[in-house]
Amino acid sequence: MMRKILCFLLLFNLYPVFSQTEITTNELYDHISFLTSTVNKGRYPGSSTNKKLVKYIFKDFKKSGLEKFDQSYRQEFVAELRVSNDVDKKPEVKTWNVIGLLKGNDHKLQNEYIVLGAHYDHLGHGGPSSKSDQLNTVHPGADDNASGTAALLEIAERLSAIQSQLKRSIIFVAFGAEEQGLLGSKHFVENSPVPLAQLKLMINMDMVGRLNEQKQIYMGGAGTFPEGQKLMAKLGKEAGLNPVVHAGSVGGSDHVSFYKKNISVLGMHTGGHKQYHTPEDTIDLINFKGEKMVCDYIFQTIFTLASSAHPLTFIAQD
To answer: Residue 179: which residues within 8 A CB-CB, separation 6 or more?
Structure first.
């Protein structure tokens, strides 16, 4: 008996994976607090803080027990940064997507992948995409898209805790340089770690931290896979939300890169607001209880599809 106990302790120390079964508002707050901190200077691609952000994300992936692709959580690419029309082009910069894997357990369905993604970058001190007249001011991007990045980390942790129940595999991606023209997601689909034909659904979270009093969660692309609209409406109601479900309306965030490759998508958000792309998009405006509800909803969506043989064939939308 003592020998068995010692072997167990040895294995536990070799594989220190900690996964929890619930998404918490405290952890959502901690993630968003870090991502929006002034030391991270608005999470601009190629900045001195970029490597630190990437390390923060992949350490959390590792802690949750996600696997690497090709011995690394990082997928490097080069980004051309946007500038105003009257400004010379900036040199291209190096940045990264951060990728983790949960492998499914069905011998056939484990080769079908659901992708959950969110972009972690923002505008730095503003630039041509800013809606503010405050020059050289940090844009913290609490809702856009620290909220989605925090949701990604929390949902990954919760799904990892029930990995044994998954049939399909799940890829988690924190995209870089979304604000520069969806560059991270474009690079991912052109350099996918698995064949594109095996990517069956991409769920994107971009601005999921401002759930309104009507508890409306908006989504586009629900008609891009069979029974998607019906499923998302049903699961949304069960989660205590009022889902606004569009068959098309694919939108303008990272899921577009996947849709263009004939991959089914869901683009999830809690709506626009006047703080969008301004220095006023701050953590004090995040509805943490609401974001937890959104996270639980997206978790349940992925679990339902990853633990079943629900068909995930692509349906184009007008």
So the answer is: 45, 82, 119, 121, 122, 123, 129
- Identity at 134, one-letter amino acid code: Q
- Residue 11 covered by a domain: no
- For the CA atoms of 31, 36, 38, 44, the dihedral, rounded to the nearest 10 degrees, stands at 110
CATH number of 270's domain = 3.40.630.10
Backbone angles phi, psi at 296, to 5 degrees: -60, -40
User: Does the residue 26 lie in any domain?
Assistant: yes
Give the structural domain span for 274: 18-306
Ranges of H-type helices in the chain: 2-14, 25-35, 50-64, 147-161, 183-190, 228-238, 255-259, 288-306
* Residue 91 backbone class (left: φ over 0; alpha: ψ -120 to 50; beta: rest): beta
Per residue in 48-81, pLDDT (tens digit) is 899 999 999 999 999 999 999 999 999 999 999 9
Q: Are 258 and 314 in contact (CB under 8 A)?
A: no
Tens of pLDDT, residues 20-41? 679 999 999 999 999 999 999 9
pLDDT higher than 70, residue 124: yes
User: pLDDT tens digits, residue range 239-291?
Assistant: 999 999 999 999 899 999 999 999 999 999 999 999 999 999 999 999 999 99
SS3 of residue 22 by DSSP:
coil
**Whose CA is closest to 227, among 160, 315, 287, 291?**
315
What distances in angstroms separate CA 103 from CA 36, 225, 306, one per listed residue? 31, 22, 10
Backbone angles phi, psi at 303, to 5 degrees: -60, -45
| Count of domains observed in the chain | 1
Does some domain include residue 317?
A: no
Q: Is residue 9 part of a domain?
A: no
Whole-model pTM: value is: 0.93
